[in-house]
Every structure is written in structure tokens, then in C-alpha cells.
Design goal:
about 300 residues, alpha+beta, three-stranded antiparallel β-sheet, 10 strands, endonuclease, Very-short-patch-repair endonuclease
């Protein structure tokens, strides 16, 4: 990280630049006591670099993503803030820094689009939050759910089940917006997350294995003080292994957890995507058989797929 030189910069201006990842606007520089002539000289001698018209980096070296994000907010002016994937990245909901940095601005503002910034105008301007101004977490979650429907369960689980926000806060955002593409889908996914279903695989298991075959409903995401389990019945645990997190060191964690549960008198069955998606009836038979051995006096029912294959 480059060091901000103090030459000709007042202490307040240095502190402001540090706060903004080394980025300041011409307006801020003039307000801090510099003149256009001084700014021009600092740029010409290489002490400052011009990121965009009227926006400068006062640090040496490569401009970071966060510095570019700050530049976009300063270009947006006023109460502009990061939105969509950019806000999601700062919130920790998106793993990789997006190339395009979306900045939310008021509808009456007309800014020229320029890479890497995209200025999205809105009449529904939320109050920005955070040191790097961004949309509030519930609004960010809704925006990402709209943009990436396939990620809705994960996004809602990260934010809601992780207790970073509440279902009511997300619903409040949905209710406040006149138009939300896929509103019913988001509400349905939110309901599943509230029930403890934290992944799409868990949803498939609940729908195609449990409900379709009349099995008892297991408890979701139970934490026993040491381990968290996906689905828990009396004496039986069902772990649903997605595509990630169950290889390498993750496999050893799974084994240690299964062994600990076995020593505590609880059996573990494990299923993956192919099992629950392609062979849910076979999974249901195994779960039902094990539950019966453990004292369940119910009867597994046949789903439409069962009747097709087994008559």
C-alpha cells in the first residue's frame, strides 16, 4: 500500500484521503486548502494520479479495487453508494471483486457511463451505510437475489441464517419496492431459510425425499455444541454433501464428526446431489428403513416417481 505524502496536504486532508483509500476529489482538495495549480503540479510530477476527471489517487503504486470503488462513489456525489455485486463484495456476500463497480445514484442525476463504473439511477434511494458507502445489507441481498436467482438460497442463508440481518428486514425491502422481478421466488426461498434450509440441496431433500414420501420432518441445522448437522431425526443424522467443502481436509472433518456422533449413539447417512436429485426414492427407502429400526411407526408413502418405477 502506498504512503500518502504530507507535503502540501493539511492533516485533515491527509486523514480524509486515508479514510477514502487514498482517493480524493477536486472539490475536497480545494476545500482542504489546495489550489488548481497545486493539484495540476502534483499530477504532473507524479505525486498524484488522475483516476477520472476531478478524482485523484494520492497514493503511489497500483490503484486498488477499494480505491476505484471510492472513486465511483465520489463521482456519483452526494449520497451515492455502491450497489449490486460491488456492495455484495464489501458485505462479504460475493467472493470475488467485480470488474464492473455499480454505483447507485438518484434518478435525477445523469452521469456519463465509464468503465469500471456503472451508475444506476433509482427513485428508491436507501440510506447509505458503512465506511465505504453501500446499500444496506437487506437491500443488497434483494438486489443480488434478483441478479442471481440460482444463488438465492445461499445469499439468504448467509445473511439471514447467519443472523447478519433478519427475515423481517428483507421482507420490508421487498414490500417497499413496487417492482421486484421474481418477488414470489425470493419470498419462497426466504421462507425455506427461516425453516432452516440453507442450501438448494437441502431444499431438494426436503421436497423430493421427505415430503414426497411422507417421512417425518427432521430438524434443520442443529448445533449440538460442537458440530452443526443438516438434518436430524431421533437417533439418525442425515448430512447433505454439496459440491464444495467435503474434499481434502473437509473429508476428515466429516469423518471426525460422524465418528463423534456414532460414539454418542447417533447414526449418520450421507447423500449428495446425484442421490437426492436423481434417486430420491432410493434415498427415502434407506432413511425410512433406518427410522423404522430406530422406532418410527409410520409408513413411507409412494410418490409419483415411485409408482412409475415400482408400480
Amino acid at each position: 500500500m502506498g504512503v500518502i505524502p504530507r507535503t502540501e496536504l493539511s492533516d485533515p486532508l491527509v486523514k480524509l484521503a486515508e479514510y477514502q483509500e487514498g482517493v480524493i476529489s477536486r472539490t475536497q482538495a480545494l476545500g482542504g486548502g489546495l489550489t488548481d495549480q497545486v493539484i495540476k503540479r502534483l499530477v504532473n510530477q507524479g505525486s498524484w494520479s488522475r483516476i477520472a476527471p476531478g478524482i485523484y489517487s494520492v497514493r503511489s503504486g497500483t490503484t486498488s479495487w477499494h480505491a476505484r470503488a471510492w472513486a465511483g462513489v465520489l463521482i456519483g456525489g452526494g449520497d451515492a453508494m455502491l450497489a449490486d455485486q460491488a456492495a455484495g463484495y464489501v458485505w462479504g456476500l460475493v467472493d470475488d471483486a467485480p470488474g464492473r463497480i455499480t454505483v447507485l445514484v438518484r434518478h435525477e442525476q445523469h452521469l456519463r457511463q465509464r468503465w469500471p463504473w456503472y451508475f444506476r439511477r433509482t427513485r428508491e434511494m436507501p440510506r447509505p451505510v458503512g465506511a465505504l458507502p453501500r446499500t444496506p445489507l437487506p437491500a443488497t441481498v434483494v438486489d443480488l437475489c434478483i441478479a442471481e436467482p440460482a444463488q438465492q438460497t445461499r445469499l439468504l442463508a448467509d445473511a439471514v441464517a447467519g443472523r447478519r440481518t433478519s427475515p423481517g428486514a428483507v421482507l420490508k425491502v421487498l414490500d417497499a419496492r413496487e417492482r421486484v422481478p421474481g418477488r414470489r421466488g425470493i419470498e419462497a426461498q426466504l421462507g425455506r431459510v427461516r425453516e432452516g434450509i440453507h442450501s438448494e440441496l437441502e431444499h431438494v431433500y426436503a421436497r423430493d425425499v421427505e415430503r414426497a414420501h411422507g417421512l417425518p420432518r427432521g430438524r434443520r441445522q442443529v448445533f449440538d455444541g460442537q458440530y452443526r448437522t443438516d438434518v436430524r431425526y431421533d437417533g439418525l443424522i442425515v448430512e447433505l454433501d454439496g459440491r464444495a467443502g467435503h474434499q481434502g481436509s473437509g473429508a476428515f472433518r466429516d469423518m471426525n464428526r460422524d465418528n463423534a456422533h456414532l460414539l454418542a449413539g447417533e447414526l449418520t447417512l450421507r447423500y449428495g446431489w446425484d442421490d437426492c436429485w436423481q434417486r430420491p426414492c432410493g434415498v427415502a427407502v434407506q432413511v425410512a428403513e433406518m427410522l423404522c429400526r430406530l422406532g418410527w411407526d409410520g409408513t413411507m408413502s409412494l410418490c409419483a416417481r415411485c409408482k412409475t418405477h415400482w408400480g
